[in-house]
């Protein structure tokens, strides 16, 4: 448990915004409280440039696009389009968790984070196309609130999916735990794996390592560049920072798994 939270803490400070703020803080301390002002100005400049670069829209797009391009989206499943054969064979639909708000003023679907919302909608779309498939939802609870798996089940159920189709994984803390728990539930049965497109490469690597016969069904695409030139695609804003953060987080996760020999 301690190692899990240590991993979370270290990864948090390696994200672009916290890392930039850390550099700026170190620079301020050196310039204000030390004789090494030159070193302080170096850290201040490095922190500013890191934050500036991470906030540029093109940087975020270029870093995130290769992750999202690895697995294509499932096409429209409405007539006259046929359901792809690989998808039609799936006996389970696995919707990975993605965060929520515990404010009771919101219905289940609108209490989800933007990523979890997209995953829930995609899970419902696939569940309607595969009426015989069970829907596995995952996510632990933060006491005294309901588990994220339960919230996902209520949210997807609100999109006209029968409640008796759901199976909950409520004790998985991360994607690796979700993969192992899914394997224990489904065995060798083929599953449609639903998660954010930028998270899919790491998720698929972990599910395959766990022995799950998974078909990638990505959603929540964030790197969708315009085909024509637009000047605001070359500006700095929080959307660029968000994309850069997603890309750095996933690449660090993949690096860590490779380092541990898990994939």
From TrEMBL:
<dbReference type="GO" id="GO:0043164">
    <property type="term" value="P:Gram-negative-bacterium-type cell wall biogenesis"/>
</dbReference>
<dbReference type="InterPro" id="IPR003848">
    <property type="entry name" value="DUF218"/>
</dbReference>
<feature type="domain" description="DUF218">
    <location>
        <begin position="92"/>
        <end position="253"/>
    </location>
</feature>
<feature type="transmembrane region" description="Helical">
    <location>
        <begin position="40"/>
        <end position="56"/>
    </location>
</feature>
<feature type="transmembrane region" description="Helical">
    <location>
        <begin position="12"/>
        <end position="33"/>
    </location>
</feature>
<dbReference type="GO" id="GO:0000270">
    <property type="term" value="P:peptidoglycan metabolic process"/>
</dbReference>
<dbReference type="GO" id="GO:0005886">
    <property type="term" value="C:plasma membrane"/>
</dbReference>
<keyword id="KW-0812">Transmembrane</keyword>
<keyword id="KW-0472">Membrane</keyword>
<protein>
    <submittedName>
        <fullName>YdcF family protein</fullName>
    </submittedName>
</protein>
<dbReference type="InterPro" id="IPR051599">
    <property type="entry name" value="Cell_Envelope_Assoc"/>
</dbReference>
<keyword id="KW-1133">Transmembrane helix</keyword>
<dbReference type="Pfam" id="PF02698">
    <property type="entry name" value="DUF218"/>
</dbReference>
């Amino acid at each position: 448990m301690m190692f899990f939270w240590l991993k979370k803490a270290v990864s948090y400070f390696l994200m672009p915004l916290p890392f930039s703020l850390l550099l700026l803080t170190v620079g301020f301390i050196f310039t204000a409280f030390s004789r090494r002002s030159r070193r302080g100005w170096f850290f201040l400049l490095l922190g500013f440039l890191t934050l500036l670069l991470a906030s540029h829209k093109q940087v975020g797009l270029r870093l995130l696009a290769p992750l999202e391009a690895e697995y294509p989206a499932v096409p429209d499943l409405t007539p006259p389009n046929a359901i792809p054969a690989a998808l039609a064979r799936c006996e389970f639909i696995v919707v990975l968790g993605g965060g929520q708000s515990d404010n009771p003023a919101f219905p289940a679907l609108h209490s989800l984070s933007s990523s979890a919302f997209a995953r829930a909608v995609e899970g419902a779309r696939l569940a309607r196309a595969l009426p015989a498939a069970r829907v596995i939802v995952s996510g632990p609870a933060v006491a005294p609130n309901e588990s994220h798996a339960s919230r996902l089940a209520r949210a997807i159920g609100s999109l006209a999916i029968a409640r008796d189709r759901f199976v909950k994984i409520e004790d998985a803390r991360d994607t690796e735990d979700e993969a192992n728990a899914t394997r224990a539930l489904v065995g060798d049965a083929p599953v449609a794996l639903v998660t954010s497109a930028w998270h899919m490469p790491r998720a698929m690597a972990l599910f395959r390592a766990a022995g799950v016969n998974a078909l990638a069904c990505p959603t929540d695409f964030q790197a969708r560049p315009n085909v024509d030139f637009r000047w605001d695609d070359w500006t700095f804003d929080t959307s660029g920072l968000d994309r850069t953060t997603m890309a750095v987080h996933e690449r660090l996760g993949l690096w860590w798994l490779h380092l541990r020999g898990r994939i």
